[in-house]
Amino acid sequence: MDSFTTVGSMLEPLAHIGRDPKTGGYLRDSWSDADLELREWFAGEAARRGLDLREDRNGNLWAWWGAPSPERPGVVTGSHLDSVRQGGAYDGPLGVVSAFAALDLLRGRAVTPSVPVGVVCFADEEGARFGVPCMGSRLLTGVLSPERALGLTDDDGGTLAEAMRRAGRRPERAGRDDETLADVGTFVELHVEQGRGLVTEGRPVGVAAAIWPHGRWRFDFRGRADHAGTTGLADRDDPMLPFARMVLAAREAAQRRGVVATVGKVRVSPGNANAIPGLVSAWLDARGADESEVRGLVADLAQAVGADEPGAGPGPGPGGVDVREESWTPVVDFDVALRDRLARVAGGDTPAPILPTGAGHDAGILAAAGVPSAMLFVRNPTGVSHSPDEHAERADCEAGVVALADVLEDLCR
Ligand code: HGY
Ligand code: MN
Ligand code: MN
Ligand code: MN
């Protein structure tokens, strides 16, 4: 079976799900209608292949070829199907589609794996709706408590628990799931590269070396709502000003500390053009190879806006600014032996390039939980991601599937 046709034809039916016709971007929030439609697609692909489909207590989907057990854990591959808002078509779906296509290739090669092979779709990897990324894998591995997770709210104030219930799930069961985790012997995630490392290397497929430490912090700037026209400047307590200072300070500190910092989401309340806002909430995403520099940047910003450091004080700091850490992922160095094995197998004559990434992934959460994990990257010609412009060439997608099938065959000998 021609692997590329499988990838191409499998990406096709997904292309319309959650797509914004005006922008070509994707709106695939966790537990939204688009997410439920994607879950049905996943179930259909599993059924077409006679795979044993299971949804675990945290909404992660597992499609098994062979029955895993703690005594005989399987080799699992896959990724996620949810997206950031106005995201691209490849971040997540390429890994899930390639997993099914690689399994087809193994069967086409009449490979009889020595262990079960699983395809996984993790729930809510982007955290676009409830704010915490890798929600499904964090709950699965216990690094995020169900109490905290289920109470997280979306922009409309709805909780994760309500969203799961509305989707017919039982959120009260969410939480660490050692039974499911025990089925996973090795996890390999294929993902479109979010960067231009493979373009520079001139290679279609690469292997992840490490995932940078990264986190998300929420800044709440409190002020006093008042009339835009009748309130003198001296009488204003305008939260927009410390917010603006924070954004400019973030860029300066990032430059100075050699990290990256982004404020991509701001919520102004109540949001009247003719009124001084009462509250400005802003989310900082900061990442970098050196954890102390990332942490240092956040401390710089808290100081710049007169806030207590995250988690230091019970409520808003002296300047009416409150900083809360919403998620933190320490550095993940992938297992060197497994990483090098993948580079050899995936690279053919010359080992595939091994490169770090500033993007977070479920493979990082599993690796941090002690599950032998690794990642394959597929070349992204522009490096652009988290945007409708995200792209991967067809031939590179095919090379990714062949590399993944070779890696799975090697791991399942
Ligand atoms: O944010 C990330 O790095 C990932 O795409 N969730
Ligand atoms: Mn992403
Ligand atoms: Mn992703
Ligand atoms: Mn008025």
Automatic annotation (TrEMBL):
Keywords associated with the record: Hydrolase
Claim: Translocase is one of the keywords in the record: no
Matches recorded under InterPro entries: Amidase_Cbmase, Bact_exopeptidase_dim_dom, Peptidase_M20
- Record carries keyword Hydrolase: yes
Superkingdom to which the source organism belongs: Bacteria
Signal peptide limits: none
The UniProt similarity line reads: Belongs to the peptidase M20 family.
Name this protein carries in UniProt: Allantoate amidohydrolase
